[in-house]
What does this fold into?
Amino acid sequence: MRARDLLIAFPSVTVDAPVIEAARLLAGHDLPGLIVVDDDGLPISILPGTQVLRLAVPGYCQDDPALARVVDEKHADAFLTSLAGRTVGEALPSDRRELPVTDPDATVLEIAALMARTRSPLVAVVSEEGLLGAVTLQALMDRVLTS
Amino acid sequence: MRARDLLIAFPSVTVDAPVIEAARLLAGHDLPGLIVVDDDGLPISILPGTQVLRLAVPGYCQDDPALARVVDEKHADAFLTSLAGRTVGEALPSDRRELPVTDPDATVLEIAALMARTRSPLVAVVSEEGLLGAVTLQALMDRVLTS
It folds into this structure.
């Protein structure tokens, strides 16, 4: 079994896209994260959903949960409105981590090793033709356990 | 909107359970992680899927992907067999991080702040009666964006 056998089409976003669009993709597709691509369609980062929340939630609430509690329910429900006008680029992690990217020939062990090392449940698969899609941890475990 | 409105039933595992059982739950339910509970059913940790892979993949493959590539496809496909006899406890992260746990009254802002701070797409919800279930990042974003 190789990466090409586990591939799923995967939505990608550009660095300049509105981050609220990324939030909608995460919500609608039940994805562990999004692939962020450059103008050539090549992956430059992975955007985990928690990173979108780090941009949306005021810093004082992240530092101290007691302060989040004093915001009333109506205003709490609307917290994603703070993303208006912000881009995907602003939500990306500041530390440049190793990118979980592999090629279509990678074995399940190579993919699993990449997920383990980068702690990413999502690996982008790239060939000479560009981004082909992604392999998710769930799909990998499912196929390995049932094969 | 409160945690109780976003709750889903969520499979939990005990520290002593076989880790292969955790892998099956992750694969079959498309979950970002599992809640690990003690003998009283109270959450003591969150087990991300990548942590199961860290236990399953030999260290030399995690350190150097070129070494993972030399393992042939047949043996690569069988890499999860290394989990035989291992327990969930062995797969838990060694660093004791803050546990993403909240109560049924938490607002979406409180839940989001907790996910952002702990970088967990999964928050366990606990009342005096014990573990009630979990709120996922996807469910939270979905409800906030469509309400």
User: Anything to note?
Assistant: The mean pLDDT of chain B is 89.
